[in-house]
Sequence to fold (324 residues):
Amino acid sequence: FLYRLYVVDFVEKGKIYFISALKSVHPVHLTWLRSVHAKIIKLPFRRIKYAFALNTIYALLSKKLTDADIVITENPKFGILTLLRAKKRTKIVGLAVNLNAYIYYHWRIFDHIIANSHFIKEILVKNDNVPSEKISVIYPFSNFEEYPIPTEEQIKKKERYIVWIANYPEKRWTKGYSLLKRIVQKGHIKVIHIGHSSISSSSNIINLGYLNEQEFVNVVRKAKACVHPSLFDAFGVAPLDALNLGTLPVVSSNCGISELMPDEFVASDVDDFCTKLREILDMSAKDYESRLRKMIFSIRTKTSKQKSIKFFHDTIINVLEGGQ
Fold:
């Protein structure tokens, strides 16, 4: 039973499947999948270590995917498994969201790849020799894009703390946490963390754990800045959420979202993070409102929820109809 598969069907029609070993599907991906009436096949483990387990999964996947026209997965290992599909015409589409997968596995097995940023596309082209034309860049979206931009008076009421968001259960951020601690120690900055409970509170880092949506909105909107110290992120929905909620973010240069951000909000090392976060904390309400408004208008046109969903839908349909 350790190697059984179970299917979560939220739409009965369609022959498109998504294979995942994650405890929960990212909300953005879930919305994308619903747009093409995909069925989710969840595997009850993350890693496949032994040959006998591989043989079991080969057999189970082959049985489950007998009617599959397209199989979508975020892990190239599952892409390899689906090569045992019953139909030779089944197409495999990869969601390029995992750095470990870029290093250890081969993405060339996919008929098409969806990358969350040009940053990721360049890695796949350079490191794995994936043809550029086989990769579509689709930016994730924020569910908070309809929130109004705070006024200058509302910005004056913001509290002098920085928020660090890891609000999805699958995001452990342990490496990002080590970087954050160095930023806090060097910059003497107060940080409120939203997310994984293993992050312990200290004098300068307060862990609130996971929050419901309204609590999340309240904490983020009151913050003066958001920090995203990830050592690598295919995109970075957390700082996008913060921005749409009216809080200026500073993100790592190793994140996909950095390609959409002005240089003044992208940091390359600890000193850079400290300097740019301090500038935001000391920024006047008038200057803050001006920069926030300008950045939101620029980024929302490229991360629109409606455009993101339509682009994903059209890309999958194009693959289904025989395109690359």
